[in-house]
Amino acid sequence: MIEPIIIVGIHSDAKRTSNYVPYFDEGVKQDFGEYQPDADKYTRKIIKQVFPFIEKNYKTKPGRGIAGYSFGGLHATWAALNYPEEFSFSASLSPSYWVKDFEIFKEGSKAKANQTYYFDVGTSEWNYYVPMQLHSKLAILQNIFYYEDFGGWHSVNSWRGGRTRNILLLFAGTTDLSKYTWTIKQEIIKSAVTGNFYPRINPVISYTNGLTCSISYAATFILLNPDDGVVNKDGSFRFINSKDLKVKIIYNGEERIIIINYEEVEKIKAGY
């Protein structure tokens, strides 16, 4: 269940790239045509024109959020970081954080403790967004939430459903952060950008209201046979020898032990 909310959809037109992108990037220009990084101008237009109209014509309550996908997801994060007094919540579906070599990460420290941020990515469109959680300096699974949609694409079909539900529950729902279950996924992700493989342990937490998020960086990973491989703080791993890896995962005082089967991982990689 969520509280009643007002959702305002703003049509994107031929100026979409200019309106949403806050940085100049030669690669964006090559792929999407000439543009001006006018995200700040566009954001101020929303604040000065859209907000007063809604508040004049509808009964509102305190608290505003901004959400978007792709370039719109980049803008949603950027707008909340740079106008925290206007946006208490930001949600980004498959955001284009890659613009200007992840420049948005440098702005993560602007996030305020009274804000909530959500972002996600489909593993079939994989780009490495996980570290955004650390650049924000916010409390993971309290103020900043991340979700990996295994097999998800950069498409409306992937964004609807559970990922949209996550946004609504975080913004207008009630989540008891003390009541949850968690499971462990082993993901062998092939980057759609580089073609490289990204083997990863991804513990996923499910709260009782249906909110689902990754425990990336909130969990601790301990490799019990360190001579045979490496497991990093984000759950990514690699083999040193052709042997299985035994990993202890700790979250909020709970421990699980999993075995990463070397032959299974190599079989998955060969099947791509």
Describe the protein in words:
It is a single chain. With 272 residues, the protein is α/β, with parallel strands linked by helices. It has a domain at 16-178 and 203-215: Alpha/Beta hydrolase fold, catalytic domain (Rossmann fold), CATH 3.40.50.1820. It is 28% helix and 26% strand. The chain has 9 helices and 12 strands. It has helices at residues 16-20, 26-32, 39-57, 71-82, 99-102, 132-136, 156-159, 162-172, 262-271, and strands at 65-69, 89-93, 116-122, 144-149, 180-190, 197-207, 212-214, 220-223, 229-231, 237-239, 245-251, 254-260. Strands 1-2-3-4 form a 4-stranded parallel beta sheet, sandwiched between helices. A 3-stranded antiparallel beta sheet has the order 5-6-7. A 3-stranded antiparallel beta sheet has the order 8-11-12. The longest helix is centred in the N-terminal third of the chain and has 19 residues, at 39-57. It is globular. It starts with 15 loop residues before the first helix and ends with a helix. The mean pLDDT is 94.
Helix content: 25-40%
Which residues sit in consecutive blocks of at least 5 with pLDDT less than 50? Answer: none
Radius of gyration: 20 Å
The number of distinct helices, counting runs of at least 4 residues, comes to 9
CATH architecture of one domain: 3-Layer(aba) Sandwich
Distance between the termini: 40 Å
Strand order, sheet with most strands: 1-2-3-4
Q: Can you tell me the overall shape?
A: globular
